[in-house]
Amino acid sequence: QVQLVESGGGLVQPGGSLRLSCAASGFTFALYTMKWYRQPPGKGREWVADITPYGTRTNYADSVKGRFTVSRDIAKATMFLQMSNLESEDTAVYYCMRPEGPLWGQGTQLTVSS
Prior knowledge:
Layout lengths: L2 E5 L2 E3 L5 E8 L8 E6 L6 E6 L6 E3 L7 E6 L4 E6 L8 E7 L4 E2 L3 E5 L2
C-alpha cells in the first residue's frame, strides 16, 4: 500500500524541541524529493521544508530556517523533521508529502504552549 504515516507530534513548551517522523511505504522512497507542510489553526497549509533524493539538498521556509532540520533515512524509508527553539507560531498540523501524485500523510498535531 502506497502511504505516508506521520508520528511524533505532541504538546511542547516554548523553546522546546521535538522530532517528527514520516514513514513511507509502497514506493521507492529514495527516488523522490519529499516535503513537510503545516497547517496552523484557521489558516491554509504552508510549505515548511523539503529534501532531495538521498538527502543531498535541503530547503527551508524563512520562518523555520535555523530552527528546523529535515533529514531522511533511506534504509528505513523515513523522513524526519527535527524542530528546536519552538514558538507558539509553530503550532499546526504537520504533514509530509511526496509531490508526485501528490501523496499526503494524515498529519500529526504539534502544539507549542506553556
